[in-house]
Amino acid sequence: MTVGARMFNEHDGIAVLNQLATAVIQLDAELRVWEANPAAENLIMTSIAKLRGLSLGKLFPGQHEFVAAVALAVCDQRSFTERDLQLTRPNLEPMRVDCIVSPRQSGDGVQGVVLELTSTERQQRIQAEENKLIQNQISTALMQGLAHEVKNPLGGIRGAAQLLERELTDVQQREYTQIIIGEVDRLRKLVDRMLGPRGVLTPSTFNVHEVLEHVRQVVEIEAGRCISIHRDYDPSLPELQADRDLMIQAFLNLMRNSVQALGDRRGNICLRTRAQRKFTIGSRLHRLVIRVEVCDDGPGVDPALGDSIFFPMVSGRPDGSGLGLPIAQSLVNRQGGLIDYTSAPGHTVFTVWLPIRNTR
Question: Could you give the domains of the chain?
Fold first, then answer.
């Protein structure tokens, strides 16, 4: 039985609706909004005070075929279901939903209609996030396996070069062994970067803005005056429980990535923080997460790279190592968080979601 087949003019029915995760919108016989539950307010991004009395055509602008189908359902007193339906919110922002349309029953017969809306975007996002987490775990395992395979012979090469250097009397020949040792050390450092920070996490409680301010100062010193860093912080954010040093490294990698994307041109980076409620990371729903955005007005990420930018050794720059973003993703994943991005020329945003553990 759908929600639409129930009685909604009773107080208990309204109380139940308000607890549902499914968005429910009740329309009168003239297809005007009569009632909507909190889930509908969140989905439509409009309060019930503004929704009441709104016609279906204004509720979903430009959706003439859907409005006509709902009107016919009222006339014929029948229900129907639309899967993965694209609708437009009153603010003209698109959304994709599964929709069940049911005549609303009352003591006087059919009076209006009930819409049940379930966002398919959330399910698609959850699946995409799970895929990202799996990909990150696989790539991290491959990277660590490759790193260990490389480090073993490097130690032998360095040791042999040192032994050879002791036997040589020619200064010029000893310079060659120094080159070998220097290159081996450089490769070992590269391999250590591939492996990333390891060991047991050492969580502490801190304000995320303290970490961001520390990272901002470091990056400003590195970048010089050619980069302007702006801040848009939410001062009401609760404290975060995580490994502070790993968080510093993750945000350093993200901000350095933005600086490198800007290149030699003068550009802007913005650090933005917000609280976000009822957010799913992987398959786990969190009551509250902190959202941190690192935005820049650079040329954007090459669309051909897609999500592969979080894979090791993948870079959009000829001189890039392709390790900064994968390591940042791995560090955030270890805290139970996630990194994603959106990009267009002149506006690239890397978003970090970090769960507030004591509010689950």
Answer: 3-120 (3.30.450.20), 200-360 (3.30.565.10)
